[in-house]
Amino acid sequence: MPQGFFSPARVRAARQAARVTAASLTGFYTALYALDQPVVAVYALFTPIALGVLSPVPGSGRQRARTVLLVLPVAVALTAVGTTLAVTTASAVAGMLLFGFTVSFAAAYGPAPAGVVPGLLLFYVLACFPPYAPQTLPERLYGLLAGGVLLIVCERVLLPAPSSPSSPSYRARIASALDLAAEAALSVAQGHGDDRERARHLRDEGRALRFSQVPPASRPTGAGRTARGLAHAGSATRRVLDQLARMFEKPAPQPGDDPHCATLLREVAAACAATAGALRGTRAVPGQEMLEEEVADFVAVRGRPSEDGAEASPRLLRHRTDVLTVAASALTVQTAVTVAIGGRRSSPGMPHDQFWYAEPSTPRLLTLRLTGNLTLRSVLFQNAVRTALGLGAARLVAGTLDLSHGFWVLLAVLTLGRTTAGATWSTVRSAAVGTLLGALAAGALLFGAGGATVVYAVVLVPATFVAFAVGPIAGPAWAQGLFTLVVSAAFSQLTPATWRLAEVRLLDVLTGCTIGLLCGVLAWPAGARAELRRSAAELLRAVARLVALTIADLVDAPDEARARRDVTEEALRLARHRLRIAEGAYAQYRTEGGRGPGGGGPDWLAALNCGSHAMAGAHWLPRLDHGPAPPDAVRWARESVARLTTALERAATFPPGGVHVRTPPLPTEVISNAPPLVRPSLVDIDGWLRNLAADLATVGGGDADEPWPPVRDDGRDTRRTQGRSRDLR
After folding, report:
1. What are the residues whose beta carbons fall under 8 Å from the beta carbon of 348, sequence distance 6 or more?
2. pLDDT at res. 473
3. For residues 458 and 653, what is the distance between their CA atoms, to the nearest angstrom?
4. Is 283 helix (H, G, I), strand (E, B) or coil?
5. N-to-C CA span, the chain
6. Is 195 helix (H, G, I), strand (E, B) or coil?
């Protein structure tokens, strides 16, 4: 037996095939032979196929059953509408365009809605197929509900998909990472540093929070408050670990050298431990007041001379900036968790621009997710348009040519369409070969069995199981070939059929392949590749403007900064909107087989990282400002930001090797000449610009972390501007 024959993927496919086969054929045989209801039998057969095979619903058996239960009312509505609109070809095509786009666009809500999109579309496709028979609507709904209930039962009791203990929930992953962060913060508070091995361990734990390392069912990518809060908490936790790792890569001052840093780090450790306990349900959801007070006290004293009158050295100021950065990220984690699992809608210390999603109602959040993607630059919008056009064209062809089994044309478009022309061509080519071979096998079966329906009834059981066990793993050729045998055996029990049924199946699938290929060529043929380059470039340009405005607000006169406040807020809103669009493009790019970091070509994650870091600095730095900077500091800041913004504009062209920019180092004399309360702000600015320059150095290719902060959805409200999509890496 070949090695890997019983691989986890094959075992999962076989278990799911067993559940779908049991559910679909139980309903089909009962309705057809016990009740003599062929219409009920058809819908009882296709409902488990639609929601169990065509829709890869993620999660355990309980989660999948719940998802099926929730979508059954939508399936009923689509079946009723499809039955009604089948009155003419024009109305059916119009409905196909409308519902094809609407249902496909619902993928913006998260992985569960995205998973059921193909199955839901199948209900409208099946119902709007001629002949027009509104009198059969009750039978159709009976079959649909029967098939759905049978699938729910099988998902729960027949080889149910387990919740893998090796794949903890995202909450558990964040909690584990926060425990590690608490230990690391205490270690730094005690004066431990220069430990590269520990720094590597912290970064590895942070990478485990990437959505690419999390099963689809556990990814908090939904539009609701809980999902947004957990996604935000995960992103901020990764920043905490990364920032602590940097502190372990250099010697740390002894606790006695700076008791304020040690105190704040201990409070960070306590906050991380409390938040981890809340995520596990062992402690109450913590308030962020204690950490907020410690941060405020630290900000107030970090620039002041010590009790003996000695002024802080530049090295100590940089260490204090590092500690404050860790505390700010930990405070973000704590606040995001209170929103996600504590249900907190607002608090005095909760910044609206970071936690805008805490106040709106769930319907409002869902609306924002959709309206934010209503743009030609959104790959979710592009996919929905492509799907609607393909299905509409297929329904028009089926109705105009009066194809006897035109449903198969639409099904081919629905199942074989891909997001790039190249992938579509590869898929339809394999599917055509598989359908041809399957048609030959089905033709031989129909020719040999003739009118002996008992033969088809016997063959249908193993054919269905093998088709759904092998097809999802072996590829479109096997899937289409085996499914051709399944539908031939099923339809031959409904009405007398000859070997020409296999011929009709072959022609209909080839017609659907042609339509799908044309849509792939005409509608965004490059998929996410071209869109990712465009959206990442727009993100870097938006970041350049945001950085320039933020630094100007920090070093210019207060009156000038206040007069420019609306412009800065608009730049921040635009940058967050660009980041959301770029993240969606990158998510699809990876599903299309696009290269990740180290795979050659631009490092798209570095560009996304740069945007994430820029917005974090634009949020925190103005809150840490201590007054006007002296002229030499202003000159240094302007020169530094001019170099960086020029580099950002150049990086938007993604030159090979990236863009290496060295911002002018913050001179020691500039720090010394500045007022004591202004010095920390100068060090903060220097660190921010240096981090952004480091991100740019890897844009042309290299390693970068994967950002996933919640990003604003609608791109309109300048007061509430953060909120995301993707299988990533």
Report:
1. none
2. 85
3. 62
4. coil
5. 32
6. coil
**Phi, psi for 15 (deg, rounded to 5):** -65, -45
Q: Report whether 416 contacts 511 (CB < 8 A).
A: no
Omega before residue 665 within 30° of 0, cis: no
Of residues 113 and 31, more confidence is placed in 31
Longest Cα–Cα distance in the chain? 103
Residue with tokens 């001179």: 667
Strand spans (E) along 552-689: none
Using CA atoms, how far apart are residues 414 and 395, in angstroms rounded to an integer?
A: 11
- Are 659 and 651 within 8 A, CB to CB? yes
Out of 18-32, 355-369, 377-391, 701-715, the most confident range is: 18-32
Tokens of 535: 């959206």
Confidence of residue 257 (pLDDT cuts 50, 70, 90): low
Q: Which amino acid is at 575?
A: A
Helix (H) or strand (E) holding 12: helix 8-29
Report the distance separating Cα 286 and Cα 335, nearest Å. 9
For 44, the token pair is: 């009882």
Mean of the per-residue pLDDT values of the chain: 83
Task: Report the amino acid identity of residue 371.
Answer: T
Query: How many CB atoms neighbour CB 347 within 10 A?
Result: 15
Considering the chain, what percentage of its residues have pLDDT values greater than 70? 88
Confidence of residue 728 (pLDDT cuts 50, 70, 90): very low
> How crowded is the C-beta side of 667, counted as CA atoms within 13 Å?
11
515-552 pLDDT per residue, tens: 888 888 888 888 888 888 999 999 999 999 999 999 99
CA 245 to centroid of chain Cα atoms: 27
Token pair for 362 = 């769930």
Residue 1 has pLDDT above 50, yes or no: no
CB 235 within 8 A of CB 608: no
Give the span between the Cα atoms of 355 and 710, in whole angstroms.
9
Phi-psi region of 664 (alpha: psi -120 to 50; beta: other; left: phi over 0): beta
Q: What is the length of the chain?
A: 729
Written in H, E and C, the secondary structure of 25-38 is HHHHHHHHHHCCCH
Residue with structure tokens 């500039």? 670
The pair of structure tokens assigned to 620 is 């925190």
- The neighbour count for residue 657, using CB atoms within 10 Å, is 11
